[in-house]
Model the fold of this input.
Amino acid sequence: MSYPEPRYFGDRGQVSALFRPAAPEPDTGFISYVANQEDTSGEFGLYKIDMGPKAMGATEHFHRTISESFYVLSGEVRLYNGDRWVTGRQGDFLYVPAGGLHAFQNDSDDPVSLLLLFTPGAPREEYFEKVAEYAQLSREDLKAFQITHDQYNTDMLDNKPY
Done:
């Protein structure tokens, strides 16, 4: 394994770091934007999820263009790794490459907090902000919305009932 091809060709480095103090984010109900694809020039998107007790996360799905990683900050979260459900606890990590089936939910009586990393970065904010709204629309509209956002829920494939 080797390092990627260089992307910076200067001799002395440059002043280009981004520091953004914590600030209120759009109310999506459970997700905070730590660094979106605009912040990272498309390299990654990093989000913090705070779920209440017995909270549904995401049903089984996959992405064609992005990988997704989960890092548990606190609590216990159920993670589907494509083969089986596992319990993630503080410090546990799950990496899902593009095409990998996965899901998550909080089955416990306590809140859970985790980091979600998408690589490369993708404009996930609209998905997080509008998925609940689209879920109330027709199956066809929801499926089109999901496909636009590289979200392929297995219960929406092959005309399975939603």
